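Technical annex, item 7. During the second reporting period the consortium partners agreed on a shared format for inverse folding records so that results from different sites could be compared directly. Each record opens with the tokenized structure and is followed by the designed sequence. A conforming record, contributed by the partner at site C, is shown below for reference.
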């Protein structure tokens, strides 16, 4: 009995009931596993990004409810604020976050001891995970500005102030009434599985909140003609002829 056991354990003998894998068979198995991983990982990444984009759209929709409540209180006139929400921009410059804090059921973003924002839903996009801002240690955009979203009418108001010295939001508000334009949009092209260095200047991977029906959807960037027509209508409100 003992001789049989010793014989079965001697080198070069096959395991009882089977045989060992050859090197070629092991390489084939490893290759198959590598192929399966290469197929499933991109699918998993895309699935996760889809979930993050859906959450981002829900956040924009929540902000839209607050903006609508604000407009109802102020005769459909947008607040005169900067496109980026930063309460430290100036003592006389109100931020969108400060104003919307009374209309959105969420904690208003505030700064910590490092002078960076602490923020949460609905002000942050889950795909906003890195930026080019050295001050925030290249962290999310909302760490620097309090939110992941920029206020598009604020960009137009800023243009009106710099070029035409118009410090008023009524013209932009009236021009928006007849247009399906974005009110809020992602600060950057976050909603893609592409590496940042592979994103081209004309690519669009942003979400946006639209005026009138307050839907949240993929950003449709207004054309140059559409923007020029809007600016002309704003100037017309102030009896200024665009040249």
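Designed sequence (site C submission):
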């Amino acid at each position: 009995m003992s001789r049989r056991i010793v014989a079965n354990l001697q080198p070069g003998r096959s395991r009882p009931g089977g045989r060992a894998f050859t090197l070629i068979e092991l390489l084939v198995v490893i290759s198959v596993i590598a192929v399966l991983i290469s197929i499933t990982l991109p699918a998993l990444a895309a699935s996760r990004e889809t979930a993050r984009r859906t959450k981002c759209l829900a956040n924009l929709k929540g902000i839209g409810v607050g903006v609508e409540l604000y407009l109802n209180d102020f005769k459909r006139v947008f607040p005169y604020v900067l496109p980026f929400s930063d309460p430290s921009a100036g003592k006389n410059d109100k931020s969108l976050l400060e104003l919307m804090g009374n209309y959105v059921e969420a904690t208003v973003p505030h700064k910590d001891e490092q002078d960076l924002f602490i923020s949460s839903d609905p002000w942050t996009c889950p795909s906003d995970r890195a930026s080019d801002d050295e001050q925030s240690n290249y962290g999310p955009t909302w760490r620097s500005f309090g939110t992941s979203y920029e206020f598009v009418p604020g960009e137009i108001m800023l243009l009106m102030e710099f070029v035409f010295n118009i410090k008023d939001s009524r013209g932009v508000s009236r021009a928006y009434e007849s247009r399906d334009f974005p009110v809020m949009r992602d600060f950057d092209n976050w909603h893609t599985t592409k590496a940042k260095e592979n994103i081209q200047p004309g690519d669009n991977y942003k979400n946006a909140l639209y005026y009138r029906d307050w839907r949240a959807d993929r950003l449709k960037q207004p054309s140059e003609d559409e923007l020029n027509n809007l600016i002309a209508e704003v100037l017309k409100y102030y009896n200024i002829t665009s040249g």
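The first helix runs from residue 2 to 9. Residues 1-15 have pLDDT under 50 and may be disordered. All partners now use this format for quarterly exchanges.
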